[in-house]
Amino acid sequence: MSEHAVPAPGLIDSTTLKIREVLDGRRRGPRSALLFAGPAVIASIAYMDPGNFATNIQAGSHYGYSLLWVVVVANLIAMLFQALSAKLGIVTNRNLAEVCRDELPKPLVWTMWVVSEIAAMATDLAEFVGGAIGFSLLFGLPLMAGMGVTAVLTYAILLLQGKGYRPMELAIGGMVGAIGLCYLTEMLIAPVDWGAAAYGATVPHLADVGALTIAVGIVGATVMPHAVYLHSGLTQGRAPARNDDERRRLLGFSNREVVIALALAGLVNAAMVMMAAAAFHSGHPEVAEIETAYHTLTPLLGGAAAGIFLFSLIASGVSSSVVGTMAGQMIMQGFVGFRIPIWLRRLITMAPAFAIVAMGVDATRALVMSQVVLSFALPAPMLALVWFTGQRRIMGAYANAKRTQVAAIVGCVLVLCLNFVLLGEAFGLA
Predict the structure, then answer these.
(1) pLDDT tens digits along 106-120
(2) CA distance 398 to 68
(3) CB-based contact 56:228 (threshold 8 Å)
(4) Burial 39-63 (b: 16+ CB within 10 A, else e)
(5) Domains delineated in the chain
(6) Residue 179's closest CA among 83, 52, 63, 342?
(7) Higher pLDDT, 417 or 407
(8) What torsion do the CA atoms of 8, 13, 16, 17 make, to the nearest 10 degrees?
(9) pTM for the full model?
(10) What pLDDT shows up at residue 10?
(11) How far apart are alpha carbons 150 and 130 in whole angstroms?
């Protein structure tokens, strides 16, 4: 077992013991499955972060329901790669960054680490700015003050890590549930055209180059590099398998949790696009910023809808910032073998976000561009994960089946193609 897998005191011991009872057949019933829930729930917050709010609002207001199919495709890719990441941790008791460090040439390892750190900063930009916008609009705070409140709340929640993994899982799970309830309520308020939504979710269509840019942003906001790294670390030492039977059972519980947690995250993303399409596309297609969306929602759907929107944005910003810090620490320790204090980790990754706000850059534009940066950082962990989970030398009997490997390669190719097209557009080649 690696150093990440050492159980912490307190609640972690109680949860791990109960998991052992289930694996030994001494604890049964539907509630026992809840003991295995947690890793995918934490990873799922990456698919509901403020970057998703920004890209989904633009998708719905500019293009109505026509980009819902991108949300569906991105979510299916996310399910596959989060399942593979979880499998890597369960089978090898190592996280993806550790496997990269052990298996790849040193220059490549250092390059991947630098790219991953840049992605972590882009992630923090989206999370901090999103949370700050929510606090700023809800309480009338300056944007910089809202970022400070977000930072303090994030650090306070991160202190739960000292009490073991279960309190953190419950805290993040509560915020995921709050975001989901907010958008369920929004769907009851907004006049959604369900026929158009079903068509947009099932028929691929890109109206113009602008739609392509937003589509890449949706992919970058949905399939997140830090979540791909993090999930393997969350499963690697939670309840280490003692034999193949336990390993198979852990994989079964993990796969079911991934499907459920990410399906719910996908529904939340779809709800964001549908709310924006229903509220803005017909009369206000110019709405592109989160602030404008809030101010426009009030006269269109009422103060309750606007307030719920802000509450979900704040929950998203704070919780995803917590998860981003956890992932950043794991990435650093996995790639280069050292840790830094949580407060320093927080300071390093949030500094660019504060700098961008101080320079007066449009907040929502910064959010969308951060998602494009993440989309370009994504191929490295995706390709590494596909390679490692397909190797019998590393995975043994749990190496990817041929169909799984083909599906993963197709997912990688799709993301890479989107990235190359966007790169061509940015340099005037497309």
Answers:
(1) 999 999 998 888 887
(2) 34
(3) no
(4) bbbbbbbbbbbbbbbbbbbbbbbbb
(5) 3-426 (1.20.1740.10)
(6) 52
(7) 407
(8) 160
(9) 0.86
(10) 42
(11) 9
